[in-house]
Amino acid sequence: MAQTAILGAGVMGETLLSGLLRAGRPVADLLVGEKRGERARELTERYGVAVVSNLEAARQADTVAIVVKPQDMADLLAEISPELRPGQLVVSLAAGITTAYIEARVPAGVAVVRAMPNTPALVDEGMAAIAPGSHCDDVHLAEAESLMASTGRVLRVPEKQMDAVTAISGSGPAYIFFVVESMIEAGVHLGLPRATSTDLVVQTVVGSAKMLRETGTHPVVLREQVTSPGGTTAAALRELEIHKVRAAFLAAMEAARDRSQALSGE
Ligand SMILES: NC(=O)C1=CN([C@@H]2O[C@H](COP(=O)(O)OP(=O)(O)OC[C@H]3O[C@@H](n4cnc5c(N)ncnc54)[C@H](OP(=O)(O)O)[C@@H]3O)[C@@H](O)[C@H]2O)C=CC1
Ligand SMILES: O=C(O)[C@@H]1CCC=N1
């Protein structure tokens, strides 16, 4: 099978690595580029994967997945560019970095795909979107899709939607964890033991997510089913509206979208 290199084995790089292995990708087909010796030893012990220099990984691999921070992208591309060749596929998982940014820094003819995954990929419930660059054919896009599909669902989107995707599903798990954390804390304020509050909130979120996915019913309808006339839910939702939670979500996601747009220029 073709070799895939993962450059940048932090939170998301390790999530991709472990997902590919769970999906049955032979470890011999994977390479990791990691500059810190201690981290390299940890990854080899944990997964049995070969850890090599970025240059060596770029030389050997057919597909190079780049999972460094956007701010480290320019240096990494300058480092590996001498080893990249036309026909090779670069998949960038970095927020905000456009395919044009990468294409301008690699040899002509290198295919580039921009991907935006999220951390639920760690439990094979990821949501990723992919967008092709200008030298990318269907085979390249299908390869990027199969890479991301190892850990969950994948959508193909036009690149102009990627900053919004990043604001919704890329950063999205953090908003959900923030809501969960807030609800647990509220339970504690209401006098529940922390463990009880945590159990109640986590299962409520899992159950609600499962209902959304399995029934396909619109969230407004599901919310109305919970909201008995003159009851407890109506009282709570009124407070959420008074505190402008809906407007806060809109402002938050606009801020994430704007931050994503700014990252290519830094
Ligand atoms: N975390 C998330 O939920 C998501 C992250 N992403 C994207 O994934 C990318 C990585 O994010 P995340 O995993 O959170 O960040 P991390 O900081 O956890 O991981 C980045 C990794 O890249 C390594 N690195 C930096 N420079 C190089 C280099 N030249 N060669 C090899 N490795 C290098 C870092 O090593 P060291 O620590 O030694 O510097 C670190 O291990 C970002 O671009 C982010 O936008 C996308 C979607 C979701
Ligand atoms: O916060 C970030 O910039 C990255 C991209 C999406 C999720 N985490």
UniProtKB/TrEMBL annotation:
Origin: domain of life: Bacteria
Keywords: Amino-acid biosynthesis, Cytoplasm, NADP, Oxidoreductase, Proline biosynthesis
Pfam families, per database record: F420_oxidored, P5CR_dimer
E.C. no: 1.5.1.2
Residue intervals of the Pyrroline-5-carboxylate reductase dimerisation domain: 159-262
Keyword Nucleotide-binding tagged: no
Catalytic activity: L-proline + NAD(+) = (S)-1-pyrroline-5-carboxylate + NADH + 2 H(+); L-proline + NADP(+) = (S)-1-pyrroline-5-carboxylate + NADPH + 2 H(+)
Family to which this protein belongs: Belongs to the pyrroline-5-carboxylate reductase family.
Record NCBIfam families: proC
Protein's name in the database: Pyrroline-5-carboxylate reductase
Organism (species): Nocardioides taihuensis
